[in-house]
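Hello, quick one for you while I still have it in my head. Could you read through the record and tell me how the tokens relate to the sequence? No rush at all, and the record is pasted right below.
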Amino acid sequence: MRAKFTSFGLILLFMAGCAGVPPVNCVALGRGSHICLLPPAQLPALDGAHMITVDHNGKRQMFIGQLHIDSHVIRLAGSSLFGPSLFTVSYDGDNLRSEPAGGRQRADLLIAVLEMVAAGQRTLQPALQGLTLTQTTTNDGKRLREFFQRGHLVVRIEMSAAPLTQAVIRFDIPSANLSVLMQPLAGQAALQP
């Protein structure tokens, strides 16, 4: 009898632990909130290159990011300022790939944030679970997206008034002490890091 209760207790414990795990192809953005990755066909097609500055826990890294989105794939390739490839992440709607395998980057989070930037609000809203999206446009055309979980800011994205390939984009994840600034290589007025 005791073995039955112990087994039942372990099953309940296992099920409770799984309740916090996001579904397949979804990325946790806090306790009980996640974004499910969108198929590339639901995103606008684009090709662009940005200088990317990442500030995380007081450390700064810079690299060149080349983003490609078409109806079949979303791909981000990162290379050092001197040319060598650092990483490539891609998502085809089913499979998430990262090279080098086991690299330091979180491929799922990179793709999720890129989709949070690129997707239209109506397309993005159903992919959000436990998150509320607010979107505003300032008088000078800057776009601001904020993602909240129970009133707490989870992600903040600010985009200049330009097409995405030419926009200056900043996103912040306060709980991770992470700030990323993306400046187009073609030359655009920059936000200060």
Notes: The longest helix spans residues 2-18. Helices lie at 2-18, 107-118, 121-124. The chain has three helices and 13 strands. Residues 20 and 31 are 7 Å apart (CA to CA).
